Amino acid sequence: MSDDAPTGLRGYHESTRSATYGVLSALPLFVLYEAMILAVNTGTEAPVRVGADVWIKELLSMTGARGGLLLILIAVLAGLAAFLLDRDKTIPIRGRYVAGIVGESAVYAVGVALLVSNVTAALFAVAPPPTGALWTQLALSIGAGLYEELLFRVLLVGGLSLLFSPFLDPPTARYVLAAVLGAALFSLVHYVGPLGDPFQLPSFTFRLLFGLALNVLFLWRGFGVAAWTHALYDVMVVTGVFG
Length: 243
What we know:
Elements: H1 8-16, H2 19-41, H3 51-60, H4 67-86, H5 95-124, H6 134-164, H7 171-188, H8 201-221, H9 223-238
Helix pairs in contact: 2-4, 2-6, 2-9, 3-6, 5-8, 5-9, 6-7, 6-8, 6-9, 7-8, 8-9
């Protein structure tokens, strides 16, 4: 760590926005989800997985990787992306920063619950309830935090902001447009395909606001915080923390 690297709260904030800490903090989610979903699907005739997980792995399977090799490929690609994005930065690796991401995300998860769930309930007098066995819902909650944030925040919102960069200035304008459009697409995709939910305005509005909140967190605090906030929020919901 160089002498001019920021320290204290500023150092934590700048470091944890990096791709390096996004990958490091997502690693526990990756291991937990893959282990739990394997246990959930063992011996069942109707295996379950997070939709974003299926889409990403189907795309990567075009390389010929399968099973454990596919998981290794995901880890290698994530590490390579972090290296390329952060190769010119000085980023201290500190365990307390990863712990800080989890704690910070727990606070945001409660905030998102109070804001998004209560606004949706006030508008429609309903909130989308969790369904299925608790262990399955916990596995899917963790997987949603990881794979949905990778797909909808990193690839979709990040890609949209890059796409809009030649046309919109200052950067805030393209971030706002990417966040709103990304949230709408995030909500709509839940109703697409044979396994999609029947379209209902309450659930669409909930997912729109939820996606928008996560987009703001991603653009402000990075992938790690967005992923953990999403995962912890879902875990709190399925375990009844929010009633």
